[in-house]
Amino acid sequence: MYRIGFLGTGHIAAPMVRFLARTGHDITVSDRNAEIAAALEAGHGVAVAPNQKVVDGSEVVFLCLRPHLAEEVLQDIRFHPGQRIVSVMAGISLDRLKTLCAPAGDITITIPLGFLEQGGCPLPAYPSSDILDRLFEPENTVFEVPDERALNMHFAICAMVPGLLDLMATGAEWLGHETGEPEKAEFYTTQLFSGFLAAMTRKPGALACKRDALATQGTISLQMTEGLQAGGVHTALTQTLDAIRDRLNGQS
């Protein structure tokens, strides 16, 4: 078991804390988000402390700060040789983390999502996955990516999640307006997608294969895919992913 500290206690950190507390680790979280920290303390027995005390008492430190605040926060913290650092922050390079976290030099970057708590969350890792293997497998699948650019491209795809949720919310609102039952409309929309994806094979090309199996000639499914294409949704997605890629690679 490890002594693990979390700097930043928000919607990304909290599910990891609950998962790791459940599996027996000794957890201390920062007090930056007092409400979430208090809930974790009350419900899962974790300790709450100021940032420096979190670091001083931890073998593994998770950096879960908002990227635009991270530099300011980390510059005031003293890390220790031999500490393991895990960053989940997009847009802060490994080289910059080595400077901010020195003399701690064993650093891994990964991309968790909230459902990690229930298992089944893919965790890309760079440059090494061994500490994540020990902490999160077998419930979650950890895999190494070849370089930092590849990791950043996974961050970009991760940003699709709120975009897709936004589209689903629009669809659910439309259904609720048409039926007069907004709560049932959101339940149906959510269950429709979660159930479909849960049952789908994970083989390469499965997404396009399922799309083509549904969107056959004369169907309303084909009308939907053609309408989205004609409306420029796919072009907008690709352009946005390109812009996020450039931002993460320091080109914008």
Automatic annotation (TrEMBL):
This is Pyrroline-5-carboxylate reductase. It holds the Pfam family F420_oxidored. Belongs to the pyrroline-5-carboxylate reductase family. It comes from Pseudodonghicola xiamenensis. GO terms for biological process: L-proline biosynthetic process. SUPFAM superfamilies: NAD(P)-binding Rossmann-fold domains (SSF51735). InterPro entries: NAD(P)-bd_dom_sf (IPR036291), P5C_Rdtase_cat_N (IPR028939). Residues 3-91 form the Pyrroline-5-carboxylate reductase catalytic N-terminal domain. GO terms for molecular function: pyrroline-5-carboxylate reductase activity.
